[in-house]
Design a protein that fits this description.
The chain is mostly beta strands. The protein has one domain: TolB, C-terminal domain (Neuraminidase), CATH 2.120.10.30. Helices cover about 0% and strands about 50% of the residues. The chain is built from one helix and 24 strands. A four-stranded antiparallel β-sheet has the order 1-24-23-22, with no helix packed on it. A four-stranded antiparallel β-sheet has the order 2-3-4-5, with no helix packed on it. Strand 12 and strand 13 form a beta hairpin. The longest helix is centred in the C-terminal third of the chain and has 6 residues. The chain is globular, with a radius of gyration of 17 Å. The model has no long low-confidence stretch (mean pLDDT about 95).
Length: about 290
């Protein structure tokens, strides 16, 4: 059963990240320039208002957050503080791009990709932000970098370029962070939802939220769909696994750009949803910078 945890009315809810030490879910509203911190036991939510879009967030190992903003990455040392730039402002001057989806690997590196509004020009990229502030290009020729997640052993990196309807899996060296060969992991049917944000559970299965697909799916390490969870919203955007036993799925969604009829069919679009899963998630590592 899918439950509505918070009728948030987010324009573009994204980047849910479970913070095990705090027992809180961090998530964002990209278009409203907000970072939220929700207590799932009560639904109580704190909000930080930023002055620019925030594409993704992740906890830092030493406290605070790392985030992808409009032009580059930034850090905060404690909740409520102003972000400070960290690493090069690689997207500065590229008006059609901003940072989008990101995740942290076991070595504490932040993998963060961009999105471009110019869908005739695949100029978006995936980068790796190391704890020393260096930013390394990893993949290019993208439209919407999404779905970043690592297998439990850290040797497989999952990634989606959302408009292609395709998920890819790449070999990765956990020690160096170098990407190896990639393969098609799963090709979703056109017109039935596109892979947005994702996460991996303790069995190495990959959960994907399908934008415009009204569902999230769980795929085996071989890329086969094992489970489908129908959602009460058209645009589920990302899924995280958390809670005290790591067996609660948290799903963000988007409520912007819906027609009156579409809005009537999904009055809780932009909400934060939960459901229970059989296989727990993985404690997410913190960024080392």
């Amino acid at each position: 059963m899918v439950d509505l945890l918070l009728d948030a009315g987010a324009l573009l809810g994204e980047s849910p990240r479970w913070h095990a030490a705090e027992a809180r879910l961090y998530w964002i509203d990209i278009d409203a320039h907000r970072i939220h911190r929700t207590d799932p036991a009560t639904g109580a939510t704190e909000t930080m208002q930023l002055d620019q879009p925030v594409g993704c967030v992740a906890p830092r190992a030493g406290g605070g957050l790392v985030m992808g903003l409009k032009d580059g990455c930034a850090l905060i040392d404690a909740w409520g503080e102003n972000p400070r730039a960290f690493g090069p402002a690689v997207l500065a001057g590229i008006a059609e791009q901003r940072f989008n989806d990101g995740c942290v690997d076991a070595a504490g590196r932040f993998w963060v990709g961009s999105v471009t509004r110019d869908k005739s020009n695949p100029g978006a990229m995936l980068f790796r932000l190391d704890p020393d502030g260096s930013l390394t290009p990893m993949l290019g020729g993208l439209l919407t970098s999404n779905g970043a997640a690592f297998s439990p052993d850290g040797r497989t990196f999952y990634h989606a370029d959302t408009p292609t309807h395709a998920l890819h899996a790449y070999a990765v060296d956990p020690a160096t962070g170098a990407l190896g060969d990639g393969r098609l992991f799963h090709q979703f049917e056109q017109g039935k939802g596109r892979p947005d944000g994702g996460t991996v559970d303790a069995e190495g299965c990959y959960w994907s939220a399908l934008w415009d697909g009204w569902r999230v799916v769980r795929l085996s390490p071989a890329g086969e769909i094992l489970q489908t969870v129908e959602m009460p919203v058209q645009r589920p955007s990302m899924i995280a696994l958390g809670g005290t036993d790591l067996r609660t799925a948290f799903v963000t969604s988007a409520g912007k750009d819906l027609s009156d009829d579409a809005r009537a069919a999904q009055p809780h679009a932009g909400g934060l949803f939960t459901f229970r899963v059989d296989v727990p998630g993985i404690v997410q590592p913190g960024f080392g910078g």
